[in-house]
Predict the 3D structure of the following.
Amino acid sequence: LKSDLMEYNTSELCDLFADSVDVVDPIFINYGGRLSYGGEITTIKCYEDKGLIDKVLSQPGKGKVLLIDGGGSTRRALVDMNTARLAVENDWEGIICYGSVREIDQLEELDLGVHAVASIPVNAGFEETGE
């Protein structure tokens, strides 16, 4: 893993900026190899279809985090090793998925932040539906 990464103390940030910080419910599990990450948020909304995800992660992602609103689905994985590798190749900082991931043993080997609600071995579709 990279040694020049910035680490975030979220408790301290909440203390220092209590009036301007919002936090999500602690429902996300860490699946990636990078424990600390942050950046400009790019958002995709899709349900059980990963076509748009791969399309966005094909673009330069230096200093960016992809937030995927997958409707919280635990039936199909929106992020797999190929998707995560695409993110690494294009310098994304991390992926937060309100949905599921798969191939979790491989995901933890990558220098990429990956948080999701659950893991499941069944892959999502590739029809590029969503927004």
The radius of gyration is 14 Å. The beta strands are 29-30, 40-45, 64-69, 77-79, 94-101, 113-119. The longest helix spans residues 81-89.
